[in-house]
UniProtKB/TrEMBL annotation:
Active site, per annotation: 342
GO biological process: cobalamin biosynthetic process
Protein source organism: Desulfonatronospira thiodismutans ASO3-1
Catalytic activity field: cob(II)yrinate + 2 L-glutamine + 2 ATP + 2 H2O = cob(II)yrinate a,c diamide + 2 L-glutamate + 2 ADP + 2 phosphate + 2 H(+)
Recorded superkingdom: Bacteria
Annotated CobB/CobQ-like glutamine amidotransferase domain residues: 261-450
E.C. no: 6.3.5.11
Domain (CobQ/CobB/MinD/ParA nucleotide binding): residue spans on this chain: 14-199
Name listed for the protein in its UniProt record: Cobyrinate a,c-diamide synthase
Keyword line: ATP-binding, Cobalamin biosynthesis, Glutamine amidotransferase, Ligase, Magnesium, Nucleotide-binding
Length: 482
């Protein structure tokens, strides 16, 4: 629990939401974040929900790491403490919502953007797609303003407007029938500044020219939205209550010896929560960035973290880099602790099938993966730990999320899973987390704030491997989390 108020700290903030996904809130969030940053403000950007791609673009727009906030993954006390930790060091916060404003896990709207806005006491700007609609927008806005108590719907931004007459009727209708101000109206854009793909915006790792994108977005928003008024509305947020953190800290004291954990970060794999990396460092690990796409040799490591990403778009390059594939296979056989999420798991399979071709992968697991046109698993997950492994204690329950277009094929009866899905899809038969030696690989993504012992156990396992290789030339025994 969180106890004890420290002090009140001004922290202007604004939440950008819409009626649905694809309403334009990401484009507007990026543009406002970039414009405020260009004005000299130190902006802390947040993305509501489990999302890597939008958060990465927000990071680029603000010039520093964006963070995720999610009422399913994090407790309310954790959200408040983490958010308030940036008050005093940043000038304002921009929070990008997800899906529709009130859309959550159930009819009560649990874990919705509106719930997060209430937790943060943040004013909300509603981005409204005005395609083929005028006066009806007033009814929509009025309904949103009255739908939930204690929601500060502070303004509306019209999007996809067809012309001056369309904008004028829509604006005057909202201003006549509601008390919610219209802060601006964006025209229809001929070209989408950032292309989209199956998981939303295309990744910044695969699309160059970010500076030009931000300048173009910034100009459109600057010319059509009252940016100064948005800033003023952000300033109406109440003082942020900075609290003393009595949640279990990630750090558990000084490490005995430094363990080195390799983190693959390249075009193929780059889905990492910054807080996960920070948690590993807080436990005493030294992180080194590695690539599966280049021929460079790796330094000595005691653990390996393979995040998610788009291995399918780099499948040919991954496949032809035989040295890297063999290196990872050899390390797995030697008992190196390896934690792999989604795309990382796909790399550890025998092969990856994409667009009619099969590509050889590392072969740690005797399975194949195939990429489909529709999602094979999407949403929050909850899983019980059913088998001993280096990262989680048997009997524990973890929460996280999954979003994968690939499916695990050709599983053998000998396949060992450590997770039984209580919510979510997983790999097969509602199980996830394949095990081999000290390797755990699955479709589940976790966040260090919701699975607080993950970093502790990862670094502990890396330390055990480190001690073993100092004393022996043979494979490290299987490591079991206590």
């Amino acid at each position: 629990m969180i106890n004890g108020l420290l002090h009140q700290q001004s922290f202007p903030r604004i939440t950008i939401s819409g009626l649905r996904g694809g309403s334009g809130k990401t484009i507007i969030s990026l543009a406002l974040t970039w414009l405020f940053t260009q004005q000299g403000f130190k902006v802390k950007a947040f993305k509501k929900g489990p999302d890597y791609i939008d958060a990465k673009w927000l990071s680029l727009a603000s010039g520093q790491h964006a963070s995720n906030l999610d009422p399913f993954l994090f407790s309310t006390s954790r959200i408040k403490f983490f958010f308030s930790s940036f008050a005093g060091t940043h000038d304002l916060a921009v929070i990008e919502g997800n899906r529709g404003l009130f859309d959550g896990m159930d009819t009560r709207g649990s874990c919705s953007t509106s719930e997060l806005a209430r937790i943060l006491e943040s004013p909300v700007l509603l981005v409204l797609d005005c395609t083929k609609v005028t006066r009806t927008t007033a009814a929509i806005v009025q309904g949103c303003a009255m739908f939930e108590e204690n929601l500060d719907l502070a303004g509306v931004i019209l999007n996809q407007t067809a012309g001056a007459r369309h904008r004028d009727i829509t604006r005057r209708s909202i201003e006549k029938y509601t008390d919610v101000p219209v802060l601006g109206a964006l025209p229809k854009l001929k070209d989408t500044p950032i292309p989209e793909r199956h998981m939303g915006l295309i990744s910044s790792q695969e699309y160059q020219g970010q500076d030009e994108i931000f300048r173009a977005l910034g100009k459109v928003v600057q010319d059509n939205i009252d940016v100064e008024l948005v800033l003023n509305i952000a300033g109406t947020a109440p003082a942020c209550t900075k609290t003393q953190n009595h949640v279990q800290e990630v750090s558990s004291g000084p490490p005995k010896e430094e363990a080195v954990i390799g983190v693959v970060r390249d075009r193929a794999l780059w889905f990492y929560y910054q807080e996960n990396l920070d948690a590993l460092r807080q436990q005493g690990a030294k992180l080194v960035e590695l690539s599966l796409l280049t021929p460079e040799d790796w330094p000595r490591i005691h653990g390996l973290y393979l995040g998610g990403g788009f291995p399918e778009t780099s499948a040919r390059e991954l496949s032809v880099n035989v040295a890297a594939r063999q290196k990872v296979k050899d390390l797995a056989d030697q008992g190196l602790p390896i934690y792999a999420e989604c795309g990382g798991f796909m790399y550890l399979a025998e092969s990856l099938h994409y667009e009619g071709e099969d590509f050889d992968m590392a072969g740690v697991f005797n399975v194949q993966t195939r990429v489909y046109k529709k999602p094979q698993g999407h949403g929050y997950i909850r899983a019980g730990i059913i088998e001993p492994n280096p990262f989680y204690s048997t009997g524990d329950t973890i929460v996280g999320h999954e979003f994968h277009y690939s499916r695990c094929l050709s599983l053998t009866p000998e396949a060992r899973f450590c997770m039984r899905m209580e919510r979510g899809t997983g790999m097969a038969d509602y199980k996830d987390g394949l095990l081999y030696r000290n390797v755990l690989a699955g479709y589940a993504h976790v966040h260090a704030f919701s699975v607080e012992n993950w970093a502790v156990n990862f670094v502990r396992a890396a330390g055990i491997f480190r001690e073993h290789v100092q004393k022996s030339t043979g494979p490290c025994p299987d490591i079991v989390c206590k």
